[in-house]
Amino acid sequence: MMGFTLANLIESLFLGIALAMDAMAVTLSNTLCEPDMPPAKKLAMPVLFALFQMAMPIAGFFGGTLIAPIIEAYAGIVSLAILAFVGGKMIVEAVRELRDPEACSTTRLTYATILAEAVATSIDAFVVGVSLAASGANIVLYGGMIGVATFACCLAMLFAGRRLGARFGSHAQVAGGIVLIIIGLKAFIG
Q1: Which residues of the chain have pLDDT under 70?
Q2: How far apart (Å, rounded) are the C-alpha atoms in residues 26 and 137?
Q3: Half-sphere exposure of 87 (CA within 13 A, CB side)
Q4: Rounded distance, CA 109 to CA 34, Å?
Q5: Which of 98, 108, 124, 125 could be joined to 56 by an S-S link, Cβ 3.0–4.6 Å?
Q6: Cβ-Cβ contacts under 8 Å for 73 (sequence gap 6 or more)
Q7: Residue 115: predicted pLDDT
Q8: Which candidate, 25, 170, 161, 37, places its Cα nearest to that of 91?
Q9: What single DSSP character describes residue 138?
Q10: 126: Cβ contacts below 8 Å, ≥ 6 apart
Q11: pLDDT score, position 19
Q12: Are 131 and 57 in contact (CB under 8 A)?
């Protein structure tokens, strides 16, 4: 395994931030969707996203070479299905609320949905883990930094989402749903 150098630390930080982008966008979308979300559910997002973003490259590093082709073959469609469903649901509820503000949606983000989003946004990290194994990278450093970066980025989005959600309401929820669908399409196409 590669050593623990400053260059590796910087590279792992940038990789972590890059991999966190989808999780950040989903955190922001969720926060816009449900601005009055309970604190435990808010904390569940950065924690679950960080855990999956950290675990997937480690899984890819140690066992991915065997199943990487299968994961790569279906990752896009799985991500698209999950994120398009969640995003579409957000848009429908927001439009309903815009048309009839009295009929505000009673459905709320569930822990199961957050878990599904964590899986969907971390599939690409599995493939990164396979490439880290091929390069002989220090997976403890890279996996840890990916998790830390994801947690920090998602935590920042919780604060940004609270401010934006209060200001833009249902319009922000529509935008959040669109972002989720775009992320799913990007995963499917890319």
Answers
A1: 1-3, 64-65, 67-69, 71-72, 90, 97-98, 100-107, 165-170, 172-173, 176
A2: 29
A3: 23
A4: 7
A5: 125
A6: none
A7: 95
A8: 170
A9: -
A10: 56, 57, 59, 60, 64, 68, 71, 75
A11: 86
A12: no
Residue 69 sits at the vertex; the CA angle it makes with 116 and 2, to the nearest 5 degrees, is: 90
Query: Helix, strand or coil for residue 108?
Result: coil
Residue 134, pLDDT score: 74
Residues in the chain: 190
Phi and psi at 35, nearest 5°, equal -65, -25
Residue 55: predicted pLDDT:
96
Contact 170, 97 (CB under 8 A): yes
* Per-residue pLDDT, 53: 96
Residue type, 64: G
Q: Which of 129, 115, 18, 116 is nearest to 71 (CA)?
A: 129
pLDDT score of 176: 67
